[in-house]
Amino acid sequence: MKKKSLLPQIFRISLPITLNMLTQFALQFTDMAFVGHYNKDGLSAILNAMIPVFVCYTFFFAFSKGTTILIAQNIGAKKYQKAKRFCEISFLGNQSISFVFFIVWIVFGRDILVLIGTHESILALSTGYLQIICFYFLFFGIENAMRSFFEGIGFTLPIFLATIIRISLNIILDWLLIFGNMGFPELGVEGAALASLLSLFVGSVILFVFVLANNRYFKVTVKDIFRSNIRYFIRAFFLGLPAGIELVLWSSGHMVQLMLLNRVQLFYIDRIQLLYVNVGQNLLTNAFAIYNLLVRFALFIYMGIGVAAVNLVGK
Q: What is the pLDDT of residues 176-205, one digit of tens each?
């Protein structure tokens, strides 16, 4: 196959995947844009809540690629039933890990925010945002399994459709729930978290409908998901684990940067009261929020292209 003829395939597979990864970027960007007009400390509050959680997100994004690889390889070898087994067990396996993350964040979320140096003035806002958005982990593992399924079979249109709906719905819900428009309660920062959570859930439901309706190579059923074999998940998990660890280390570096910035601000606030009065205590963190979003935007573009290459090479 000529190199030139591969480019359309890479683009066709990678574009929806990239857009799906950019959903996290778009939802957080939308939340920050609306909250920034509602509360001057909102940007810093959301960033302090999302940077630690993003470490967990990146782990899932990376290690679930083991399932993508094994599905693609077995489809390429025309072993469709085996590809089906890897897909089915990823639903239960991923969700089991995701549920553990949910317990950690719902129980120790505030303590983690204190550990990274979240300032008292925004601690309540960050905690409120975190305690709502962490419910995403109750279906985040299933969503990653569905994403691996579509990436593995090379049919990524459902990912694209779910992404568009999520972003559109989040913009509407942010406008309604943050400011309390059209009779909805004015929830502020917590409204931004609720808007994102509802948008993510709707997108996941749409993806699940597409999974059950799919007839390419093999068909996934709820009954077969609960009858799947754990050994398939163990193999996929350890295949993707090195990539998961690598990406966690990368995202952990951003969390360390945030911890340092939080402490630098405290140093200046304690010693130069004029700075506190003129520019506010969260200026550095707000600037870092914008920088962090731009870096992740670039990362997701390259990750989408990488997943397309994994699919084609695997086959």
A: 999 999 989 999 989 999 999 999 999 999
Residue 58 structural domain: 3-314
Q: What is the pTM of this model?
A: 0.81
Q: Looking at the 3D structure of the chain, how many domains does it have?
A: 1
Tokens matching residue 281: 């205590």
- CA distances, 239 to each of 236, 242, 269, 271 (Å): 5, 7, 47, 51
